[in-house]
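Continuing the series of single-chain predictions for the mutant panel. This is the parent chain; the variants come on the following pages.
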Amino acid sequence: MRLSTQQYEPIIIGDKALGVNLGFDFCAEHEWGFKWASRYLGRPEKPTRDLMGVQARTTTKHDPEFSIELVDAEDGLWLLARPAFERQWWTLQGALAGDNKAPIDIGLMMKSSTSAPLRSAWDDNVGFCVVGRSEPARNAVRVAHDALIGKRCFIVQSGGMLGAGGLRLIDADLIPDEADQQLRDTDTSALNLEDAVAATGIRDRLKTAGRSFYALSPRWEDEAAGTFKFWLNPAEQDRNNYGWFTLQDLENWIAGRGPIPKKGKAA
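Parent structure:
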């Protein structure tokens, strides 16, 4: 696990704790997602037409192979979630008591200043650890724990949903209806864009023409009008430009003309 250095905090609206923001650091372990949530907790991997909004980001199970430990210690309320087999090497209770040694980043959390109301560490494959030290942070950690055990934990990393960034664990039952509707609208728009791009067949046509790329990411230009453009990160950047391009630009690229081929470098 990697210690978070940004935006780790309890999530509180008014006087009600909704869960915790585990924050993030600028490291690969925090950029590659949170695979443990789908693997062990049944969180859907992406929204579909039949599953959108809060429900599409909420846990549905608790695999016994995934250990969830809550320890009320003198220096805070600790919550650790990780593969159960790791308990044969060390336990949170034992590490806090000095009986065994925790991994380095969790050890740093134990040694960190108790003035921070909440500290956390997590990664993409293993799980997470969080400690709440102030009373509001303790309440937030307990809410997150109960949501995990109750198979109703909303887990999200990107977007502005109840926090500007960081990995958020929230009790889905406490999320306002208007926030759920906002997510549903976002999901509908994204799925509409996915369908509109698929209908053009542009990805297959580029592949057939030998136009390779590292990324081809669409974005609505005018959703009402059904127009969109693409962020292109092409292969062979000595020959091709990167940037935002229209569908027509991509079709011209197939023909070896337009703004994508660099001048004098057309295939």
